[in-house]
Amino acid sequence: MKNFWNFTQRYAFPYKWWYFAGIVLIVATQKVVVMIIESSKNAVDAVMAEGANAGTVVPYSTEIALLALVLIMVRVLSRHFIFTPGRMIEHNIRNDYFQKLLSLSRNFFRHHETGDLVSRCSNDISHIRSVYGYVTLQIINVGAALFFGFTAMVKMDLETTLWLALPMVIFFTLIKLSISYMFRFWRLANQQVGELSSLALACYKGVSVIQGYYAEPKFIQKFEEKNQEYLRTNITVTAVRSLTFPMVKMVGGISLFIVLWVLGPKVIAKELSMGQVTAFIGYIGMVMPPLLSLGWMVNVLNRSIPAMERLDEILLAQPDNLEVRETLSLPDKQNHLKIDNLSYIYPQAEQSDLPKNTGKKKKERFALENISLEMTPGKVLGIVGETGAGKTSLIETILRLNDLRPKNIYLNKKDAAYTDIHAYQRYFSVAPQSPFLFSTTLRDNLRMALPYKDWYLPELDAKLLEYLSIAGFEINSEQLPDGLDTLVGEKGVMLSGGQRQRVALARCLLKEAPFYILDDVLSAVDHSTESLIIQNLKKLQNEKSFFIVSHRVSAVQWSDEILVLVDGKVIDRGSHQELIERAGFYREIYEYQQH
């Protein structure tokens, strides 16, 4: 319940006045129902009195009709004031959830599957919306109905009221026992639906691999196994519910039997009137509907508690960043980046594969080891090396996508590890090794690099076409008849690999930043297009600083300095001319690529 209380403080308290108004209206609703029952009782007694005629019930009928109109209004308003905060809380949780996911580091996503994260955002948040909406309404509704109903019944006949309380106490006991038993299964069901989502999403992403290896039967079997586990869990919950909840409906029948059994003799003995019997039946009808919904209400309430725990794992997670001690100004034309003895080990590389108690220590394998470099305005730095040499690891660490230790990177003489990560990353624009395009238009994929205020400027299309041209991407009316309005499909599936890379390059260049990182963005283009792009980049060299990562020597030979990486270490550095004049790895790959 501590989780529930903390969650309520964060999300429900801002809407306390909405809930207060809703509570007042729900209480008013039940009070009006009591007034209608009292009017019905008085009408029956008046009809049963001597001298009654057709006009006797007219005042009572008019009163009941007016009260019914009031009841409609207060009931509708009570739902408005309770359900609206529930929807707003759902809206706020989804926003916080999405923003939190965008702020977390890669280490977090290594331990959480995508499908499970999607499940938390959909199923778990839906349970919570129900709690702060319909369940909240029903809790107040049940409380008000029981208070007004039993108070009125006690005033009429205490003995009958005590008899009516007996089946209700038994009902509450059964509900409590069944809920205690089902709670662990609800938690398990939430976890299992997350696993199902993860497996389904993984299959969708890797469908070409599955089909290529004819692995469909294996994955279908695996999905069937997880689906059966989820089915068995829900069957258990349903079995308990099927045994318990029909008993709830029996309470209404038993209560009516008790009224007739206990009150019948009293009416015959003229100790009670027929109007009071009618009122008792009316109060049972008032109390029973909320009680019948109590089982569902407790069900949702208890499912929401594990859901809150699962959501808080995300909402309260903290990025793996150090405390912010340094303040960065907005990027300007004079920016200096210094990397000093940068080393990095991936988390999984720290785990020893040696048996325990051997007395030996596994030698650490660095992804990066003691790398130093400097970037000044207008400098072009080339980075070459074989696959797995550490090129992308270096870029990701510079961008702080990997954990950064203090005293390794300095931006404008400030320790980058102690700066705000968002302020730091404003200094960089990156075209990644595996370009990602969103399933929208070409225009939307490009303009996301620009401030939102510039998205609808009249000259925007001309600017987008200019940067596409710089990136060597010319819009062909035959291939792309819709121009910038062309839908590129999921992950840019409607474009070729080279086209996706060039769109990603154009998007990178559109962002105004001091440092541009191009991670192997020319690997899928032919040499003539590569030469054209390099010529265009040279024209921007005086304004921008570039990190050029590539397997191709031709892509980096125009750089001011080239780093040669092998196994995470810089084994050589210098200009293109200096490196080919001395024997080594760089000259070998240069000569190989020349033939």
Output the keywords:
six-stranded mixed beta sheet, four-stranded antiparallel beta sheet, 61% helix, 595 residues, elongated, alpha/beta, 10 strands
Explain this structure to me?
This protein has 595 residues and is an alpha/beta fold. The protein has helices at residues 2-11, 16-48, 58-103, 106-110, 114-156, 158-205, 207-212, 216-268, 274-292, 294-315, 391-398, 421-425, 442-447, 460-470, 497-510, 527-540, 553-556, 576-581, 585-594, and strands spanning 337-344, 368-375, 380-385, 409-411, 414-415, 428-431, 515-519, 545-549, 561-566, 569-574. Helix 16 (527-540) links the parallel strand 7 (515-519) and strand 8 (545-549). Helix 5 (114-156) packs antiparallel against helix 6, helix 5 (114-156) packs antiparallel against helix 9 (274-292) and helix 14 (460-470) packs across helix 15. The two termini are 71 Å apart.
